[in-house]
């Protein structure tokens, strides 16, 4: 499984798709966008921070673990840090796989694990 | 020996620094080190600790680690 | 829920994203690609055909039904018909939702239902 | 009355046409119509029938429908 992790302080730009093989049947992309209402309050955006080297290590562990359960060919993961305005993407994940079931299951579990174990924090404006 | 302590999100506010180097001993645990360098800080049940960028036990000696990080509940995505 | 269904005989071109509201937190896109091996045999591509007016009706029914279980804001559905070469997309689905769980669940169930009930067929070259 | 019969995928090969208009009666069922216009054709258990673009019962009279379609197992996506 080919994996790539990026952290960026500027808007996430999705790299163009280039399929590693003709056996990829499912290309799944997820973008997580900052919503205008945070706990019922209108916000201009969110600040994100990370323990970046540890986040990379945790992500690699999660990729390996989930890749065994849900075999996929490629994972591209990008998280924005710093201020992210409402309507822009804080997170972008692309998963390419032979079969859609593996791609969908890996995507769902990866985002769950991200929100449990990967040292990234959103900090609201007032902090 | 020296240890770098990193803090994030609300723990940075609580401790008043983002990263700082302290003296410590290999047989000290993260809990003991924080009691010494930040006596007012209580990790409670929700703040985890990472030693050399791996989740670790609050009560296990740090050995020859070079970094301890406070990991409050994460909220990426 | 805003929905759009397209059938096209030329390569699928994803329309640019334009988020209907600042409350969309999850943008999920799935592309189904023609794989080189079909039942173990190398193929140049697949032919797709549909009972198009019935397929539209079935899809609208499925959207409404799944949208109740998994509230989402927008579904864009495009299926290519005719010959689709290996490596190109036969299917493209975009789902925008407030929350990722609804988008992921709707995507998974929508594709399952598509493959059960929507009158579209892939016909291998030898037919 | 007149009914348009549509076939797809392998049923088009089996029946030898994609779409064709036949005479029929409102009290005929899809099964009866196919027995009459394509006696060699057996829908078996896997081929469904759609009447006016809705899945329908093989053994329910078609009423004032204008289209019957044979729906072999679908394989879109």
Task: Walk me through what this model shows.
The complex is a heterotetramer, with 2 copies of chain A (127 residues) and 2 copies of chain B (77 residues). Chain A is α+β, with helices and mostly antiparallel strands and 127 residues long. Chain A has one domain: Aldehyde Oxidoreductase, domain 3 (Alpha-Beta Complex), CATH 3.90.1170. Chain A has 2 helices and 9 strands, in the order βββββαβββαβ. Chain A has helices at 52-69, 100-117, and strands at residues 2-8, 26-33, 37-38, 41-42, 45-50, 74-80, 82-85, 89-97, 120-123. In chain A, strand 3 (37-38) and strand 4 (41-42) form a beta hairpin. Chain A starts with a strand and ends with a strand. Chain B has 77 residues and is of the alpha+beta class. Chain B has a single domain, classed as Beta-grasp domain (Ubiquitin-like (UB roll)). Chain B has 2 helices and 5 strands. A 5-stranded mixed sheet of chain B has the order 2-1-5-3-4, with no helix packed on it. In chain B, strand 3 and strand 4 form a beta hairpin. The radius of gyration of chain B is 11 Å and the shape is globular. The mean pLDDT of chain B is 97. Chains in contact: A-B, A-C, C-D. The A-C interface holds A 19, 22-37, 86-87, 89, 98, 100-101, 103-104, 107-108, 111 and C 19, 22-37, 86-87, 89, 98, 100-101, 103-104, 107-108, 111. Strand 2 of chain A pairs antiparallel with strand 2 (26-33) of chain C, so a sheet runs across the interface.
